């Protein structure tokens, strides 16, 4: 294993990481411990545990981002990091393994361990994940006789070899729990139950084989299969869904696990942006633990980016933000992150009672209201209302599953008000510390703003800087045309239409097909007489087809196995016909992926000729894989001079199939950097040779977005979408570690045309933060953790709700834009005060918060010098601005 080490030079600059470096050497993060399970929970070191897990896929971030992502997960109350293993990243060529850079899985697992978190490794090796080809290397489909994911010897041999490779690697690196490492759980296969029926009896055999093979590797920690109702006895079958409360594993000896809690959704080019409201997400999680669940994983906790051509298909975008609690750029998504943190604290307060009980005690409270009580002592005590906190630990969840109405219920002699579609958590069976529908956490509004003028040219007067004001990309672009059709000796000519992936092996998205069509006088006369034109007709095609006649792009077809009817105009004599077939992410889901392929299927014809249709599969075609610029690697620093770049001027009409190149300086500071490609069409982008990903300015439908997102009721990915009528993605993450201070090489390949002069570098930050908490909210969760409260010595009455505000790292609160203690109306950035308003609201909040990175204010009359309106529940609403605490930020990697 030659891996690791890359990137360590950067880490060593920072003393904080020297500690981590130390860990790399010693490699033991925990005292070795055993992991097993019973019907209730995972048993870690002899103790049942309630576990919160967060999904982070290591190659969707850079190694330089990993420590911060892991730290933010831990701070958010996550106990376990979950990741897939990406086979096609680790074995791009059969037998040649790669474990470096973003694929340095050992370093990732060690960082998780060093932070004190556990790890759930989902080896698959089929992973779906909206990842190219579901994680399978494309060479796998070339193995003679192979059928993926069934009782097929060639497939099983390859799968076993890779799974064993990973398990052995983890064992060699001492990363399993019994070796003092963080790995507590593994996964074999992935949602196989969804497609098992397609394989007949072979599917059943395969499940048994996969389980036997996995367990036989002697990893020493439990294995799970998700969505696998026929998982064998020694494998835990787990749930993946928006809701998993009430899930029943296939044996009463197995615990209830939720491997994928979809806290958002993925996005396609031209799609709307999905959002899952945190009130509903928290409801789903609380219901899961309420009804006996013990392990829950957010899919994703951080989604990240599909760099390069790793996005799956059909048509998945480069961003894999997923509406996760940590956004694509590594910033907190608020209030999602904060509200879940509160939820996790509340669940942890219940953990002693949750693990003590073998199952919850159910109490019906109303037609759509119910309680589940976890108690170490006998159930009869609870029913009899004779139970006391001091006697034993008891925790309760009170749920109102009514989608519309608030309900008031009685529980153990007390009255509780439950908002619709919510769960209240009572760690002591008496006091509500949290309700899933009451969000106290702050909201953060992110801005994507033009970066300040470049660092090295800071002395240049602004008017001399750029024709395109404000952009910090130098406006001198150079350009080179990509040849249409065949461009190298690597071309070959055969009769017929070949299967796209059989030719490209996915080394490029692009496959050129070239032929010549002879057109006679009779054909021309026939078309004129009948007022018809010939057409390229193909039964079925994916993902993008571009048709060129005599060097001109005359049409494009976009779709997933759609029919093509593309009218063409020919001249008399010989005509060059070029079909450019493109993939935009290979299929990542479904049975028989090895047969799915790309390009064209069925019959391909030229219709409308006088003597009948021309069968394109009878013609001689010349094939060329990829682009000349890709082949020459003109996007790299070493090779970009191999292209004959010429200056681009503003008057040039930007043309199709063009490469563009420029240099830019990194923006100062540490804020995440985005490339704004909203002015471009479709293509790919590279910075300093790093492939940022595909870009495409495809616009989402005008309609189908919801103006108001109602959290109540069952979520599905079409609910609460945004961004209608706008391009699905215009900003592309450039990780800081891929930049140097100045002269960063930016190269784009553009297919359809756009204006590179409008490309800019932006910085992303949370500039506005808001929070709104009323007197009926619960006190901050941190306070409940205090031992005095748990011991019953502090009364709820002594605690008041609070607003807590915090700017992102490196930012401070510069001003309070709005503050009202009373009955303020509206929402973040649209607050207004009403008649009931404490006149000193603004000054009180400003005094507590301005100039600080974080602050908190009690929501009480005492703080605001009296009661602004008697007998009415008061609310404090605050909107604050955050600014960078270092005006001239130093450049950081
Ligand atoms: C209920 O509580 C009373 C008073 O403590 C006790 O006498 C009685 O036995 C209890 N009943 C049950 C069913 O536990
Ligand atoms: C295509 O390949 C043939 C045969 O190798 C070669 O003669 C021809 O020059 C190639 N075409 C281009 C454009 O390089
Ligand atoms: C792809 O190539 C393989 C042999 O290399 C062949 O068996 C298969 O039929 C080809 N697929 C298609 C769709 O042509
Ligand atoms: C709670 O109060 C009791 C009596 O006042 C005292 O004996 C006990 O130590 C206190 N417990 C804690 C955790 O402070
Ligand atoms: C609120 O702020 C005060 C003063 O800064 C601090 O002492 C207290 O711990 C804070 N409360 C919480 C819950 O953070």
Automatic annotation (TrEMBL):
The domain of life for this entry's organism is: Eukaryota
The residue ranges of the SUEL-type lectin domain are 801-883
| Protein name listed in UniProt | Beta-galactosidase
Q: Which residues cross the membrane?
A: 9-30
Pfam families linked to this entry: BetaGal_gal-bd (PF21467), GHD (PF17834), Glyco_hydro_35 (PF01301), SUEL_Lectin (PF02140)
Q: What is its EC number?
A: 3.2.1.23
Q: Which PANTHER family match?
A: BETA-GALACTOSIDASE RELATED
What the entry lists under CDD domains is as follows: Gal_Rha_Lectin_BGal (cd22842)
- Organism, as annotated: Hevea brasiliensis
InterPro entries of this UniProt entry?
BetaGal_gal-bd, Galactose-bd-like_sf, GH, GHD, Gly_Hdrlase_35_cat, Glyco_hydro_35_CS, Glycoside_Hdrlase_35, Lectin_gal-bd_dom
């Amino acid at each position: 294993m030659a891996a690791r080490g890359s990137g360590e030079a950067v880490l060593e600059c920072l003393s904080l990481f020297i500690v981590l470096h130390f860990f790399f050497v010693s490699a033991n993060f925990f005292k070795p411990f055993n992991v097993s399970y019973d019907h209730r929970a995972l048993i870690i070191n002899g103790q049942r545990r309630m576990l919160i897990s967060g999904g982070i896929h290591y190659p969707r971030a850079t190694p330089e981002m990993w420590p911060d992502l892991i730290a933010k997960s831990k701070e958010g109350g996550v106990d376990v990091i979950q990741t897939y293993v990406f086979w096609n990243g680790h074995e791009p060529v059969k037998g040649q393994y790669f474990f470096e850079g973003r694929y340095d899985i050992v370093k990732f697992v060690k960082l998780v361990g060093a932070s004190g978190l556990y790890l759930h490794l989902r080896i698959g090796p089929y992973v779906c994940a909206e990842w190219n080809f579901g994680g399978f290397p494309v060479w796998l489909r070339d193995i003679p006789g192979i059928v993926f994911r069934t009782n097929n010897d060639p497939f099983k041999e390859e799968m076993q070899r890779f799974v064993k490779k990973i398990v052995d690697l983890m064992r060699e690196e001492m990363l399993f729990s019994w070796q003092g490492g963080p790995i507590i759980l593994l996964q074999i296969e992935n949602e196989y139950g969804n497609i098992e029926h397609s394989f007949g009896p072979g599917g059943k055999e395969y499940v048994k084989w996969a389980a036997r093979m996995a367990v036989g590797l002697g990893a020493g920690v439990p294995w799970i299969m998700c969505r696998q109702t026929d998982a064998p006895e020694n494998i835990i079958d787990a749930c993946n869904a928006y809701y998993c409360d009430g899930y029943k594993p296939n044996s009463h000896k197995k615990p209830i696990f939720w491997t994928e809690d979809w806290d958002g959704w993925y996005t396609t080019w031209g799609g709307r942006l999905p959002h899952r409201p945190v009130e509903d997400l928290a409801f789903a999680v609380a219901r899961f633990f309420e009804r006996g669940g013990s392990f829950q994983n957010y899919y994703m906790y951080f989604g990240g980016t599909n760099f390069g051509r790793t996005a799956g298909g059909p048509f998945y975008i480069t961003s894999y933000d997923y509406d996760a609690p940590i956004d694509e750029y590594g910033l907190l998504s608020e209030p999602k992150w904060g509200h879940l943190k509160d939820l996790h604290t509340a669940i942890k307060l219940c953990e002693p009672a949750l693990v003590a009980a073998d199952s919850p005690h159910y109490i019906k409270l109303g037609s759509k209201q119910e309680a589940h009580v976890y108690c170490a002592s006998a159930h009869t005590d609870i029913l009899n209302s004779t139970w006391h906190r001091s006697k034993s630990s008891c925790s309760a969840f009170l749920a109102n599953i009514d989608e519309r109405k608030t309900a008031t219920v009685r529980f153990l002699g007390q009255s509780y008000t439950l908002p619709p579609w919510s769960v209240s958590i009572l760690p002591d069976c008496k006091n509500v510390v949290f309700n899933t529908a009451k969000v106290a956490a702050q909201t953060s509004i992110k801005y994507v703003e033009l970066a300040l003028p470049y660092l090295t040219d800071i002395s240049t007067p602004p008017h001399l800087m750029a024709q395109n004001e404000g952009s910090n990309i130098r406006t001198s672009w150079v350009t080179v045309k990509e040849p249409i059709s065949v461009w190298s000796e690597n071309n070959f000519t055969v009769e017929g239409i070949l299967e796209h992936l059989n030719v490209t092996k996915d080394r490029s998205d692009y496959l050129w097909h070239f032929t010549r069509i002879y057109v006679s006088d009779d054909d021309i006369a026939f078309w004129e007489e009948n007022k018809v034109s010939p057409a390229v007709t193909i039964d079925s095609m994916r993902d993008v087809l571009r048709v060129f006649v005599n060097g001109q792009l005359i049409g494009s077809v976009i779709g997933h196995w759609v029919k093509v009817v593309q009218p063409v105009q020919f001249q008399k004599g010989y005509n060059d016909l070029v079909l450019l077939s493109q993939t935009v992410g290979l299929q990542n889901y479904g049975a028989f992926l090895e047969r799915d392929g790309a390009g064209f299927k069925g019959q391909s014809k030229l219709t409308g000729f006088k003597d009948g249709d021309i069968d394109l599969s009878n013609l001689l075609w010349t094939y060329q894989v990829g682009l000349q610029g890709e082949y020459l690697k003109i996007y790299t620093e070493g090779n970009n001079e191999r292209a004959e770049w010429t200056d681009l001027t503003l008057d040039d009409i930007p043309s199709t199939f063009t490469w563009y190149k420029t240099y830019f300086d990194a923006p100062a500071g540490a804020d995440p950097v985005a490339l704004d490609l909203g002015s471009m069409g479709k293509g790919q982008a590279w910075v300093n040779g790093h492939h940022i990903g595909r870009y495409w300015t495809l616009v989402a439908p005008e309609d189908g977005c919801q103006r108001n997102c109602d959290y109540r009721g069952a979520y599905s990915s079409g609910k609460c979408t945004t961004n209608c009528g706008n391009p699905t993605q215009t900003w592309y993450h450039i990780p800081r570690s891929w930049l140097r201070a100045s002269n960063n090489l930016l190269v784009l390949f553009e297919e359809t045309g756009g204006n590179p002069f409008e490309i800019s570098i932006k910085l992303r930050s949370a500039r506005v933060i808001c929070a709104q908490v009323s007197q009926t909210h619960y006190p901050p969760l941190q306070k409940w953790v205090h031992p005095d409260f748990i011991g019953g010595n502090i009364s709820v009455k002594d605690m008041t709700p609070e607003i807590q505000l915090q700017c992102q790292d490196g930012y401070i609160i510069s001003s309070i834009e709005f503050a009202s203690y009373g009955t303020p109306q509206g929402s973040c950035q649209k607050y207004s005060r009403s008649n009931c308003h404490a006149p000193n609201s603004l000054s009180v909040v400003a005094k507590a918060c301005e100039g600080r990175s974080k602050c908190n204010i009690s929501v009480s009359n005492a703080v605001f010098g009296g009661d602004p309106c008697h007998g009415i529940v008061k609310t404090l609403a605050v909107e604050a601005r955050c600014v960078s605490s270092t005006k001239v930020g130093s450049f950081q990697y």
